[in-house]
């Protein structure tokens, strides 16, 4: 059986990276890349996917991203998913253009739009991350996380200018709008 893997939250300036792996036990209709589905449709599909799959979801915090680097967090998350779901899967396919040096991981660009297991993983990762950002929003009301989900929108950057970064922000993600220069050498993937 195929385990599809995808992530949500690689690019935001706040909040976690979320990586999901999905093995479908039963067919789920109308799966697609989470980015092209409405929030309402993603929420409905989330419950269907949960009921009809073996799955595992991994969260990596902003601090872990700052400490290890985004690529290392991705690699660690993928390995955890593979470990947890290996008894149910004999193939693992990641959306994207790299295997992160993991020998038995296949990859395909735009797999989230063409392979149903990867589409399902895309939805679980996106909904899980969005829900998390909405849940913490009241603790960080000055940032409006429920609106932009931690992405670097103009409004979000203005809030950072006003209030500084919170412990949910990624300090290693530098912002030109704040006059920040890029940090030195990126942490190694391997």
Automatic annotation (TrEMBL):
The keyword Transcription regulation does not apply. InterPro entries: RNase_HII, RNase_HII/HIII, RNase_HII/HIII_dom, RNaseH-like_sf, RNaseH_sf. The keyword Metal-binding applies. It catalyses: Endonucleolytic cleavage to 5'-phosphomonoester. Residues 1-185 form the RNase H type-2 domain. A divalent metal cation binds at residues 6-7, 95. GO terms for molecular function: RNA-DNA hybrid ribonuclease activity. Its EC number is 3.1.26.4. PROSITE patterns: RNASE_H_2 (PS51975). Keywords: Cytoplasm, Endonuclease, Hydrolase, Manganese, Metal-binding, Nuclease. CDD domains: RNase_HII_bacteria_HII_like. It is found in: Cytoplasm. It comes from the Bacteria. Manganese or magnesium. Binds 1 divalent metal ion per monomer in the absence of substrate. May bind a second metal ion after substrate binding. Its cofactor is Mg(2+); Mn(2+). Endonuclease that specifically degrades the RNA of RNA-DNA hybrids. Belongs to the RNase HII family. PANTHER family: RIBONUCLEASE H2 SUBUNIT A (PTHR10954), RIBONUCLEASE HII (PTHR10954:SF18). This is Ribonuclease HII. It comes from Arcobacter roscoffensis.
